[in-house]
Amino acid sequence: MNLVIMRWVLISLVLVLTACQKSDSPSSKKSIAVIPKGTTHVFWKSIQAGAYKAGNELDVHIDWIGPEKEDDRQQQISLVDNQVLNQVSGILLAPIDDMALRRPVQSAVDAGIPVIIIDSGLRDADKLYTSFIATNNYRGGELAAIELARILGGKGRVILLRFVEGSASTEERAQGFLDKINSYSEIEVVSAEQYGGATQAQAQQVAENLLLRFSGPSGQMLIDGIFCCNESTTYGMLQTLRRKRQTGQIKFIGFDSSPPLLEGLQNKELQGLVVQNPFKMGYLGIKTMMQHLRGEPVEKEIDTGVTLVTNENLGDAEIMEILFPDIEKWLRIGTD
Prior knowledge:
The protein is of the alpha/beta class.
């Protein structure tokens, strides 16, 4: 009987040691959660595709989960908390709110789960996250102001349409735009505090109301230029200008790209789009996380670039590479 017991004890010890070796093995497959602000806009799908590409190259499992709406702070907080409970290897997070997401990020780090922030910053939390991978959004706003001022000949009345409160990335774009445009003495910013909301439909309604404020008694527009801070506000404003038959009359710079916005640019309904490289953002996010998990040093901040696209440079090879990465291929591979 004692021999039988000893035999089972030895078998149990072997099984436990084998399990421990397997879980601690550097070759065991990692799981990284990528939590964007939303999942519907082309921008987020590009980040998803870039993450899948890196995951495929590094043999990493990617959990892509995000809120349905880009202003649903509570849902994003719950998603982060759930991934901490799931004990994922790491988290890539694009915070909806630069303050509200600090607590769940702290919880993740306290649980030994590293967090990389992408796209939009987290206020006063640089000691919490492993790396910040994003566009220089302030510079993006400056580029928009410089181009709009050039088109307007350095004079005129302009409006700024923001995205949603608490979104660090778009607030930085707005600040960059305002700081630069206000350096032109003959340009007046007549509206800069209006928020478009999280969806294209909301943005279009806000744009309608905003332009109504700047319409003369006979319907003529009393503004000369517009800057919108992200894809949904740019789309909403474009639709409103079309309905009012003002495209091309009011000079318009948007931010981010999508097929409808590029069509508007080609048709000269938009005079410029400031674009990011979301595919690169997702790709570098996973690569950087894996470097960190392997114990390798990583950069604290990584700038993924920002570019002004106009009708004139739209066909350039470097622009085409940024605008048209093979998203469908990597989304298909990542979900197989």
